[in-house]
Amino acid sequence: MVKVNGIEVDAVGKTVSEYIATTEYDPKRIAVERNGDIVFKSQYDVTVLEDGDSLEIVSFVGGG
Q1: What is the 3-state secondary structure (H, E, C) of the chain?
Q2: Are 15 and 47 in contact (CB under 8 A)?
Q3: Percentage with pLDDT > 70 across the chain
Q4: Distance (Å, whole) CA 6 – CA 32
Q5: From CA 1, how far away is CA 11, in angstroms rounded?
Q6: More reliable by pLDDT, 61 or 37
Q7: Mean pLDDT throughout 52-59?
């Protein structure tokens, strides 16, 4: 299991891109941290999630 923002999900074996595609997140407006390290957008397609990983996904919201 992978913990995403504190909630366990079954995403083991998926890339960050594959996981994000199953959510409502806009990939252009988020930042992802995996096990305490920032995952750069250029690495989303090659970063494979493993059992025990912890992701924090933060959405950026514009406004004024």
Answers
A1: CEEECCEEECCCCCEHHHHHHCCCCCHHHEEEEECCEEECHHHCCCCECCCCCEEEEEECCCCC
A2: yes
A3: 97
A4: 14
A5: 7
A6: 37
A7: 97
Q: Which two tokens stand for residue 44?
A: 């989303």
Mean pLDDT value across residues 9-35: 96
Structural domain spans, the chain: 2-59
Q: Write down the CATH superfamily of domain 2-59.
A: Beta-grasp domain (3.10.20.30)
Please say whether the beta carbons of 10 and 1 come within 8 A. yes
How far is Cα 11 from Cα 4, in angstroms, rounded to an integer? 9
Ramachandran sector of residue 24 (left: φ over 0; alpha: ψ -120 to 50; beta: rest): alpha
Q: How far is CA 55 from CA 10, 15, 64, in A?
A: 12, 12, 29
0.85 exceeded by pTM: yes
